[in-house]
Amino acid sequence: MAKSLIEINNLVKVYGQEVKNKVLHSISLEIEKGEFVAIVGPSGSGKSTFLNLLGALDQATEGEIWINNQLISDLDDLELAKFRNQNLGFVFQFHHLLPEFTAKENVMIPDWIEYGAPTVDKKERAQKLLELVGLSDVTDKLITKLSGGQKQRVALARALMNKSPILLADEPTGNLDTATTEKIYNLLRDINQQLGTTFIIVTHNQDIAAKTDRIIRLVDGQIESDKVIEK
Ligand SMILES: Nc1ncnc2c1ncn2[C@@H]1O[C@H](COP(=O)(O)OP(=O)(O)OP(=O)(O)O)[C@@H](O)[C@H]1O
Ligand SMILES: [Mg+2]
Question: Over pLDDT 90: what percentage of the chain?
Answer without folding.
Answer: 69
